[in-house]
Structures are given as structure tokens and as C-alpha cells.
Amino acid sequence: MDPGRKTDAQNSTMTDAMPASKTRFEFEDADETIEEAATGSSNLEEDSAMCEPEDSSIVGADKTSADYYFDSYSHFGIHEEMLKDVVRTKTYQNVIYKNKFLFKDKIVLDVGAGTGILSLFCAKAGAKHVYAVECSQMADMAQEIVKANGFSSVITVLKGKIEEINLPVPQVDIIISEWMGYFLLYENMLNTVLYARDKWLVSNGIVLPDNASLYLTAIEDAEYKEDKIEFWNNVYGFDMSCIRKQSMMEPLVDTVDQNQIVTNSQLLKTMNISKMTSGDASFTAPFKLIAQRDDYIHALVAYFDVSFSVCHKMTGFSTGPKSRNTHWKQTVLYLEDVLTICQGEFVAGSMTVTQNKKNPRDVDITLKYTLNGRRTTISRTQQYKMR
After folding, report:
1. How far apart are CA 367 and CA 382, in angstroms?
2. What is the dihedral of CA 326, 89, 318, 322, to 10 degrees?
3. Burial letters for 266-290: b for 16+ Cβ neighbours within 10 Å, e otherwise?
């Protein structure tokens, strides 16, 4: 996936059936907020990691994409990117520092602790003890960071997989994690959080964040589709369209200029992390994207919001194209056809999201869509694979 599609691209989302509401989201500093006026669309604005193979030095050892997932979080660069994501990190900091009553004298489990930044926030907010679980080699660095900042008596770093470690306590009061991946569910760390919740969280305990929502919209993107997809049809006079077929199946993670948006945004799925089961992360959801102007549609775009509803004030952020940019960006799914759509017409269909059977950290997406318009009539099914 290409991380650099546009330079300085400008950085929406409930079904029409959702009741109008107004939610205030805290963001960054005390005087900086995100306002959501949900009247059919929202405008909200990863120190996570989990373990290397036992001996990654064996030359020629078979590695799955899951192994590479563990390896990737051993390098400081990915943590630097996540820590510098101000929307992400400051939101978590605000949740913890401005709601110290939730953390005071509580036992906290930090799932996928990475550098331990969330654990440090919790310790500083008055937690009785924090267990920071990290499976990658970054756990060793987290241990040093905890010691360097004087929290060794409050934070215990445990290196290993959540599913394999033994906590020194039978239960915890709070589980905190930054588990979200691209397209919300890519890398599938959510199941790890749910496993920890079911095994260790005390009755009426808190999971942070506790809600996540996935959205869909449609964009005009002729220039970039031509550059990234149609390029393969004629490469210095040679037909390489077999690669085009492959490129069409791989969603692109990148920032989308909000001026490219052609339709409303549709809520696909809401997840209550406190109550859902692991199976709820696989779903089929209908959508209806209504054109807000005459234009062309080249791709559908997915993004997500997360919220912390147990806070004194509702807090959260969005990864949508109308919000401040995050390292998650958006997920672009290019369509085989160019859809010519007129204002008021709509693209209707469904999206099916499932874990890949060979590697549950990967995501398989089936998109079915239909447009019966004045200029375009089409019905198609497309498959996508996030690897």
C-alpha cells in the first residue's frame, strides 16, 4: 500500500435513519474540541503491538504475514509515527488526565503497550498498578522507559502474547488499548482486546475506548486512479494488465482531499467493545450513498471514529477526510468502472468484511454495488484483500 499518494491533502457519518444529536468531543488541549453535529453525517475528528517468532535469526525460516506484523513493531520508527500522531496520542492523554477519577487506585491492563506511553499516562493519573503487555522486542525498551521515568513500582512490563501470559493478578479494573488498524480492523488486534476483557476484566470494568464505528463514502479520483491503476494497461508499449487486476484488489491507505467527496457518508458498523464478541468483527452491512452533486465516482472510501463514552465529557476522534489527519489516513477501494452520477442519484449495495482464513490479521472485503442512473446503469461485485 502506497503511503504517499498526495502531498498535504486536506483532511463523515451516520445513516439517515440515525437520530440527530450533538456530541462534544475533547481534543488535544483543554480549549481545543471537536464538535459533532450528527444530522446524517458526523464530523469527528497506534502504540499497539503484539511477538516475534522465537528465533527470527534462522535464515530461511518460514514467516507468515503475522510474523512480519510482530517484527514491524520491534522497530522504533513505527512507534515514532504513532506517538507523533497528535490526534491519536493527545486524545488518549486527555481521556486519562481529565478523568483521573476513573484511574485513581485502579488496576489497569494496557494491551499492546508498545513504548508504554498509555501505561505512563495511567500511572501519572494515579493508577494503583499498570500491567503493560507487549509482544514485540519493544517491550525491552518499554521496561527501560518505565525505569527512566521513575514508575517501576507502578508499571510492570510483561513481554509476550496476551493469550499466553499470566497476569500476577486475577482481575483488572480497566483495559486500555490502541488496537485500531487501517480500515479499523486490519491487523485484527481487536480480538486480543476482547480475549483480555473476557479473561481478566472485573464485572462492570471499563474498556477504553469503548466504541468504534466504520463509515463509507464515495469520491472522484480520476487522476490518481489513472496513475496507480490504469498505468498497468500500457507500460512502455507492453500489456501488464495482469498486475492491474492485482492492484485493483488491494485497498490503498492514503489521505483523501475532502473536496473529492461526491456523496454523503454511511455508517456501516458500530462496535461496542465492552459487550461485543469476536465474531461481531465479521459482518455484512448495507449502504446507500447519495450524490451531492453531478460528478464521477472512481472509488469508495472507508474510515472510522472511536469514542470514550465513560468520560466526564464525551471524548473521541475521527479518521475521516473532513477531520484532522491521522496516521491511519483513509482506506480507498477503487471501482472497476467509472460511475457517472447525477445529484440525488445513489449507489446502493452491501459490504462484507471477514477475517482472512489463513491469517486472521488480514481482512477480506466483498463489495456489491448498483447504480441505476440517467447516465450509468451498472451492478457489480468486487473483491478486495488487505494484506
Report:
1. 5
2. -40
3. bbbbbbebbebebeebeeebebebb
How far CA 346 is from CA of 88, 93, 216, 293, in Å, comes to 33, 40, 13, 11
Which set of grid coordinates corresponds to residue 303?
A: 474510515
In sequence order, the 6+-apart residues with CB closer than 8 A to the CB of 331 are 182, 183, 251, 252, 253, 301, 302, 303, 386
Distance CA 292, CA 32 (A): 30
CA 125 from chain center: how many Å? Answer: 26
- Cα 239 vs. chain centroid, distance in angstroms? 36
Give the residue numbers marked as catalytic. 178, 187
Cell 480480538 sits on residue: 191
How many Å apart are CA 38 and CA 23, to the nearest integer? 8
The three-state DSSP-derived secondary structure of 168-195 is CCCCEEEEEECCCECCECCCCCHHHHHH
Instruction: For residue 213, count other CB atoms closer than 10 A to its CB.
Output: 21
Per residue in 2-39, pLDDT tens? 333 433 333 333 333 333 333 334 444 433 433 333 33
The answer to whether the predicted template modeling score (pTM) of the entire model surpasses 0.85 is no
Pairing state of beta strands 107-111 and 172-177? Answer: parallel
Task: Write out pLDDT tens, residues 91-104.
Answer: 999 999 999 999 99
What CA–CA distance (Å, rounded) separates 33 from 327? 19
H-helix or E-strand spanning residue 156: strand 155-159
Q: What is the DSSP string of 326-360?
A: -TT-EEEEEEEEEEEE-TT-EEEEEEEEEE-SS-T
